[in-house]
Amino acid sequence: MLGGRPEKEPMSKSPSSVDLSLPARRIVVQIQAGFLLVGIANTLIGPILPVLSSRWHLSDAQAGHLFTAQFAGAIAGSALSGLLIRKLEVVTVLAAGYGGLAIAIVSLSANSWLIGLASFVVLGFSLGLTNPATNMSIAELNPERRAAALNLLNLIWGVGAISGPPLIALPTRRGDMFWVLSGLALALALVALTLTRSAMRLSFGQTRPSPLPVNSMLSAWLSPYALLTGALVFIYVGTETAISGWIALYVQRLGHTAQSFWALASSLFWAGLLTGRAAAPALLRRINEERLVLLALFVAIAGMSIILTGQELITISAGAVLAGLGLAPVFPNTLAIFTRHYGKQASQLAGVIFVLASLGGAMLPWLVGLVSSHHRELRVGLLVPLLGGGVMLALQFAINSRAE
After folding, report:
1. Do the beta carbons of residue 321 and residue 310 sit within 8 Å?
2. Residue 368 in contact with residue 382, Cβ under 8 Å?
3. pLDDT digits (tens, 9 = 90+) for 15-28
4. Among 197, 376, 388, 398, which residue has the least CB neighbours within 10 Å?
5. The predicted structure's pLDDT at residue 204
6. d(Cα 153, Cα 259) in Å, to the nearest integer?
């Protein structure tokens, strides 16, 4: 029954899940390399937000609309990704996603606020295509070690996330935003072309389960486990995006001594995230995925508390690293648990997970801007992700109690 924990199905030996051919291995490498760029694109809004706010004369509430635009697009992309993957090859969907990212990013150089807003919608839509297709492909290719493989994939994503802010923000401060964004767009376009050529040569992931009836999918998503998991993913992505998106502006407002440091604030958060995902495979040899997520959330809450209570740059920096370290294993391990729980049907159900993830990314950062504008204090707005950490902790306790 999909409403509860499904019975284990024997793994069939297929080209897409066990013995990869050389062309398939090349596609996996292309997907991993592309996900490095996706990490940069996914976190782009954080390092360029201060520049865009100044250029377009935006209030905090208006700047929050950029997050909403990006993740509204991501919701649509995620909702359509499952349907497109069933109709087309996953590599074709990925190529389309990378092409859309290239167009959206180069368009952000425009001086028009409306063009910029539309660009963030396209950016989000393209991310909505690439993120589910990439994660589920890697999960299917590694049925016996999903958690480790997804942590590795998201580690690669994290390398892009940590390198993106200094690579983009520092040249942007010197007025070189057009060339920086154009270079990133060109790299994404090259990945799209490479994947398009690969899609012509290889049918990737031919073995697929029969489509689930609508009533079976509805039954699965009305189960307590699925509802708890969906809520956790919603809050997690919103919390991660709120911290990474607003922390640069938060540090910038600390005073003149912080002006040369704000561009690196996001990188410190992503450095913690990167370190946490690098350590996760080793930790998973000692504890299971559920307990690792629980312990990590305690660390994340501690880091967010330090960010809000700290007065010195060194203290806030430590809090940013700690918050990233704690949040690191939450999403990949939750996704690994989800795919293990639902087995071969997970790829057809995961679209809802990524829709909820995008919705959380749209809502919580927007709420930070709204609360900040109302109280005229960004520190108050950043209470939103701290509260999110507490809610995630409660949800994970509930999920663990059902797993035992």
Report:
1. no
2. yes
3. 333 445 565 567 77
4. 376
5. 46
6. 33
pLDDT at 261: 66
Residue the block writes with tokens 């009305």 = 222
Overall residue count recorded for the chain in this entry: 404
Helix, strand, coil percentages in the chain from 3-state DSSP, rounded to 5: 80, 0, 20
- Tell me which residue range forms the domain holding 261: 22-403
Scan for tokens 């679209």, then name that residue.
351
- Whether 105 and 44 have beta carbons less than 8 Å apart is answered as yes
Phi then psi for residue 19, to 5 deg, are: -95, 105
Which parts of the chain register pLDDT below 50? 1-19, 204-206, 256, 258
In a domain, 14, yes or no: no
Comparing CA positions, the residue from 373, 221, 392, 389 lying closest to residue 308 is: 389
Residue 90 and residue 140: Cα distance in Å, rounded? 12
* Counts for the chain of helices (H) and strands (E), in that order: 16, 0
d(C-alpha 274, C-alpha 162), whole Å: 8
Token output for 57:
């004369």
For 181, phi then psi, to 5°, come to -65, -35
The first and second tokens of residue 279, run together, are 């350590």
Q: 225 — alpha (psi -120 to 50), left (phi > 0) or beta?
A: alpha
Q: What is the pLDDT of residues 362-392, one digit of tens each?
A: 789 889 999 998 888 889 999 999 999 999 9
Angle between helices 146-173 and 22-42 (to 10 degrees): 50
> Which CATH number belongs to the domain containing residue 156 in this structure?
1.20.1250.20
pLDDT at position 217 is 66
pTM value is 0.74
Count how many domains the chain has.
Answer: 1
Whether residue 17 lies inside any domain: the answer is no
Q: Torsion angle, CA of 189/192/193/199, rounded to 10 degrees?
A: 180
